[in-house]
Structures are given as structure tokens and as C-alpha cells.
Amino acid sequence: VKHSGGCHCGAVRFEVWSSPDLHVFHCSCSVCTKKQNHHFIVPKSCFTLLQGVDNLTTYTFNTHVAKHTFCKTCGVQSFYTPRSNPDGYVAPHCLDPGTVRSVIVEKFCGEKWEESMQAHKSIKDM
């Protein structure tokens, strides 16, 4: 289905094609813990930024592979590019209501990121 979403103030809007049944990760890395992030991964080809490119700013740290993108006005991170899938996007908690049928949450040990990525069976293929 086509999900739509965006930031709190409405400056950033996106569409993402994905199943109505979401496979969501709860990551325990330092930044996800502080932001209380739950996220799901979609390929870049399934994500379209509709508006707000000029209203985005990006935070990086450590390896600088992940691009933590957020709205300059309201501060909400409505999507970002994860380190686990640098050609994918994460549309975490900012989907508009009405298109999500179910959510399965899987824990991901971000505190031991490298070990967790090696052990995970499917996250690299998402």
C-alpha cells in the first residue's frame, strides 16, 4: 500500500510503498535509545520525498553512514537513511493513520551493532 507521512509541522511530507503489515525494529543503539526510535526499512525506490527538502537538516556520528534527517522547524525525524541499509530509508513513527494493518516489533541490539548485523538473518536484505 502507499503510506504517507511527515513531520509535526507539515513542512516535510513523504510517501512510501510497503506492506500494510510492518516489520518494525526497536534498536538499542545510543541515538535510537535517546530518540525512542522504532523504525522499518524500505528500499530507496519505494520512498518519495514530496516536499520539504530545503527544510531538512542532517545529523551524523561515528561512521557517518547513517543520515539522521530531521525538520529544521519542528525537529521531528520523519525518516532517515540507516547504517544497516544505506540505500534504504526508514519511515519510523510519522505515518499518517489509516494504512497500517499490523505491526510486528523485533528487538535489535544496537549497542553491539557489528555483532548484531552479522547475526541478523534478514535486515541486510530489506
UniProtKB/TrEMBL annotation:
| Superkingdom per UniProt | Eukaryota
Q: Name one Pfam family in it.
A: GFA
- UniProt keyword Zinc present: yes
Q: Keywords of this protein's UniProt record, alphabetized?
A: Metal-binding, Zinc
Where is each CENP-V/GFA domain found? 3-114
Any one Gene Ontology molecular-function term assigned to this protein's record: carbon-sulfur lyase activity
Q: Which InterPro entries match?
A: CENP-V-like (IPR052355), CENP-V/GFA (IPR006913), Mss4-like_sf (IPR011057)
What family does this chain come from, according to its entry? Belongs to the Gfa family.
Q: From the Swiss-Prot or TrEMBL record, give the protein name.
A: Centromere protein V
